[in-house]
Design goal:
alpha+beta, two-stranded antiparallel ribbon, 6 strands, 4-stranded antiparallel sheet, Alpha-Beta Plaits
Length: 118
Amino acid sequence: MKKIEAIIRKSKFEDVKAALHAVDIDFFTYWDATGVGKSTEKIIFRGKSYDTSKINRTMLSIIVRDQNLEKTINAIITSAKTGEMGDGKIFVSDIEDVYRIRNAEKGPEALYIKGEEV
């Protein structure tokens, strides 16, 4: 099993969500995240200069079985990409184990409902 953490533009969240659903990745966690990067610029709005060094993004956390790793990553990349600096990052790490709290089911089977082999 793998954990995919993706930092994406907030404006691309709906596109990424739709792309994940299209490849049968229907459960993930997300939250607003703020970070800093090397690229900064000043925006002048109504005569006042604003620093854009703080970057608002959305962070996604997705646990998948090994066979779903590539299709999940490809869905995120194709739907989140604008070609501009600041599109985001994807991190992949190993998950040792998972438990379904409801019935204490253990292992990769705890990630999906029986009969829905995705």
